[in-house]
Amino acid sequence: MAGITENGRRIMVAIDEGDESIYALTWSLKNLIFQNSKDHLILIYVKPPRVVYSAFDGTGYLFSSDVTATMEKYSQQVAESVLEKAKLLCNNVQNVETRIENGDPRDVICQAVQRLGVDILVMGSHGYGVIKRAFLGSVSNHCAQNVKCPVLIVKKPKSTDGEDN
Amino acid sequence: MAGITENGRRIMVAIDEGDESIYALTWSLKNLIFQNSKDHLILIYVKPPRVVYSAFDGTGYLFSSDVTATMEKYSQQVAESVLEKAKLLCNNVQNVETRIENGDPRDVICQAVQRLGVDILVMGSHGYGVIKRAFLGSVSNHCAQNVKCPVLIVKKPKSTDGEDN
User: Fold this and answer.
1) Could you tell me which residue ranges the UspA domain spans (chains A, B) (predicted)?
2) What is the C-alpha separation between A55 and A33, in angstroms, rounded?
3) Is the ipTM value over 0.90, yes or no?
């Protein structure tokens, strides 16, 4: 561990559409990331598996490949837009990298942490929406138990968040 | 959140007999606690509930109050010794406070975080020994889900730890 601070740490923040991940990022920028350091910040957005639709829509027509392509394009645009907004918050950090990955966020984040040699993983305690979370289980819980590096779980205070936690 | 860094943050580190909590403390001293800051560091040691012994020992004699008192004294000495060693590591931090509390660590830590206005809770991912952990469930999991402030879970790397994680 010696030298991590001097050489810069690889800090990964998991970003999604929710306010909680942006709160976690903002909190980390104030509390964890040393100004003018060599810290390398990785903002990762994981596109969760798409809900499996029937090949037939309500009218009995097959989904065309156009529809699938449009959905895929929309999903990619959302990812890029969310990451772009997140990156704007990091203007005091010299090294910022954004990544869009696909799959179950629990597995993808754990694998990315290992593959990219991340030193600290930061996550909101919620994320990926109420319905997706119910489907996927708690991403932060899973990652906290499975990644090898320290995990920082940041909760958005209730005072600025109507959601129960 | 604004001003936390400038005014100093209240950082609580849960300490027990295990190496993992000392690793978590050391990691935090290098990665989280700003040198020469006004950060206030709280080292908390929770004496877990004692195993419930039968009032009779194997020979049929009642446990005397002497035995109970001796056990209590021993437990207090262990707590003080562990905290003293932990505090020695924090010689670069101006404000260090140690606390010994009693009860189920899951509840005690969550309550202390709220009562003392803690800004960040740091824990090892294990702690309280294999047997006690099996009995108590995962302390860090419980706290990560129940405290309102950010929680940093620090794992001791396998290379310096024979225990599976």
Assistant:
1) 9-155
2) 47
3) no
DSSP state of A38: -
Residue of A4, A9, A151, A156 to mutate for B, most B C-beta atoms under 10 A: A151
The Cβ of residue B163 has, within 10 Å, a number of other Cβ atoms equal to 11
pLDDT of chain A, 165 residues: tens digit per residue:
334 445 789 999 999 988 889 999 999 999 998 777 789 999 999 998 766 555 555 565 666 677 778 888 888 999 999 999 999 999 889 899 999 999 999 999 999 999 999 999 999 887 555 555 554 457 888 888 889 999 999 988 776 444 443
Q: Tell me the backbone φ, ψ of residue B40, rounded to 5 degrees.
A: -110, 120
Q: What is the C-alpha to C-alpha distance for residues A101 and A109, in angstroms, rounded to an integer? A: 9
Q: Which residues pair with B122 in a beta bridge?
A: B13, B152
Task: Please answer yes or no on whether A155 and B140 come within 8 Å at the CB atom.
Answer: no
Interatomic CA distance for residues A153 and A147, integer angstroms: 13
Q: How many residues can be counted in chain A?
A: 165
Contact B155 A148 (CB under 8 A): yes
Q: How many Cβ contacts (< 8 angstroms) between chains A and B?
A: 69
CA-CA-CA-CA dihedral for A85, A89, A92, A94, to nearest 10: -30
Report the alpha-carbon distance of residue A3 to residue B87 in Å, rounded.
Answer: 22
From the list A13, A10, A156, A162, the residue with the least C-alpha distance to A83 is A13
Q: What domains lie within chain A, and their CATH numbers?
A: 4-160 (3.40.50.620)
